[in-house]
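Project outcomes to date are best conveyed with an example. Our students and postdoctoral researchers have been running inverse folding experiments weekly, and each run begins with a structure described purely in C-alpha cells. The record below, which covers 326 residues, was selected by the lab manager from last quarter's runs and is presented without edits.
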C-alpha cells in the first residue's frame, strides 16, 4: 500500500513540475550575456563579466541582418553583429573573417564590441549563431558566440549571448526591512519640527570637509521634489539626487545598497549624488534608505531619508538625513 501511495505522490509531483514548466515556459528562458577577456585584450581588460535582466538593462534591435545590442549595468557596452550580404535576417551558422562594423567587407559581414570608453580601431573576429528565432518577421530569440581581436593582437574578447524577448525578469526592489546597523544621526542634533537637512562629515571627506551642517527650514528653504523613482533635494547650497532601481516606478520605503554616482549609475540598482558649495565627487559609492515616504497622487508629500556617500573610493564617509514635508 505504501508503495502505491509513494508512486502516486511521485507521479503527482512530476505532473506538477511538468505543468509548471508548461505554464511558465517563457520564464525558464533567461537572457544571459557573458564576456571573457584574455590578458592583454584592450576592450575587456582581462576580466570576466556576466549580465542578465536582473543586473543590467539589455536592449536589442535587429534590422536587415544587423543585430545591435547595448548593456547598461555596472559597465556600459555596445555591440553590432552584421550578417554577410544576401542575408536579410540572422541565420544559424559560423561566420569568419569578420572585420570592424561598419567598415567591414559586406561579403563577409562584420562585428564590433566596444564600451567603457574603449574601442578597436581595427579588428578581426568570428561569430557562431546557434539559434535565431523570428515570429512574424520579428526577432524573438538569439543565441550566439563571438571572438574579437583588436589591432591584430592575439589576445581576444570572447562573448556568449543568449537573448529572449519574452524574458520578463527584473531587478530586485529595495531591501525590507531596512538593516538596523546603518548610520543614524543623534536625535539631539535634529530640529524638533519643520523640514531640514542634516549632514555629518568625517575627517577626510571632501564634500562635507569633515564638519557637520544643519540646514533648517525655519531659517533657510529646504526643497524636495520627485519624478517617478527620482528624488531631488536642495537647501543651504547643497544638492542631492536619489534614484531608485528600474523595477520600481516610485521611490518606496526600504534600503538601496551598492550605489554609484547618479546619473552614471547602474540603472538596475539606482544611484545617488550629494554635492554643493563648489564640491562634488567624480566617482562615488554609497547607499540610501527611505524610512518614510508619502505621496499625494503622483506628487511627493513627505519623505524621511538617510544616506552614506564615499568619494573617489576613499573610506571617510559623508552621512546625511533629509526630513521634508509640504
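After processing, the design step wrote out the following sequence:
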Amino acid at each position: 500500500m505504501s508503495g502505491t501511495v509513494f508512486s502516486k505522490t511521485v507521479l503527482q509531483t512530476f505532473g506538477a513540475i511538468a505543468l509548471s514548466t508548461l505554464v511558465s515556459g517563457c520564464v525558464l528562458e533567461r537572457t544571459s550575456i557573458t564576456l571573457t577577456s584574455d590578458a592583454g585584450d584592450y576592450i575587456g581588460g582581462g576580466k570576466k563579466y556576466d549580465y542578465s535582466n536582473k543586473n543590467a538593462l539589455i536592449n536589442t534591435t535587429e534590422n536587415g541582418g544587423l543585430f545591435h545590442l547595448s548593456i547598461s549595468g555596472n559597465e556600459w557596452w555596445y555591440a553590432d553583429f552584421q550578417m554577410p550580404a544576401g542575408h536579410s535576417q540572422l541565420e544559424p551558422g559560423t561566420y569568419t573573417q569578420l572585420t570592424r562594423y561598419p567598415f567591414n567587407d559586406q561579403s563577409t559581414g562584420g562585428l564590433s564590441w566596444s564600451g567603457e570608453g574603449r574601442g578597436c580601431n581595427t579588428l578581426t573576429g568570428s561569430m557562431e549563431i546557434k539559434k535565431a528565432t523570428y515570429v512574424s518577421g520579428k526577432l524573438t530569440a538569439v543565441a550566439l558566440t563571438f571572438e574579437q581581436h583588436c589591432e591584430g593582437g592575439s589576445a581576444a574578447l570572447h562573448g556568449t549571448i543568449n537573448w529572449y524577448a519574452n524574458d520578463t525578469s527584473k531587478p530586485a526592489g529595495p531591501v525590507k526591512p531596512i538593516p538596523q546597523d546603518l548610520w543614524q544621526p543623534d536625535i539631539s542634533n535634529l530640529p524638533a519640527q519643520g523640514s531640514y537637512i542634516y549632514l555629518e562629515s568625517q575627517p577626510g571627506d571632501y564634500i562635507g570637509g569633515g564638519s557637520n551642517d544643519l540646514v533648517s527650514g525655519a531659517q533657510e528653504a529646504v526643497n524636495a521634489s520627485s519624478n517617478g523613482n527620482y528624488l531631488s533635494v536642495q537647501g543651504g547650497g547643497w544638492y542631492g539626487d536619489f534614484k531608485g532601481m528600474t523595477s520600481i516606478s516610485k521611490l518606496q520605503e526600504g534600503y538601496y545598497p551598492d550605489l554609484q554616482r547618479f546619473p552614471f549609475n547602474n540603472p538596475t540598482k539606482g544611484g545617488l549624488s550629494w554635492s554643493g558649495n563648489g564640491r562634488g565627487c567624480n566617482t562615488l559609492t554609497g547607499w540610501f534608505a527611505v524610512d518614510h515616504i508619502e505621496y499625494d497622487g503622483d506628487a511627493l508629500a513627505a519623505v524621511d531619508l538617510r544616506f552614506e556617500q564615499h568619494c573617489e573610493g576613499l573610506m571617510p564617509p559623508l552621512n546625511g538625513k533629509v526630513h521634508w514635508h509640504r
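The CA atoms of residues 260 and 285 lie 5 Å apart. Confidence is low (pLDDT under 50) at residues 1-27. The training component of this project remains on track.
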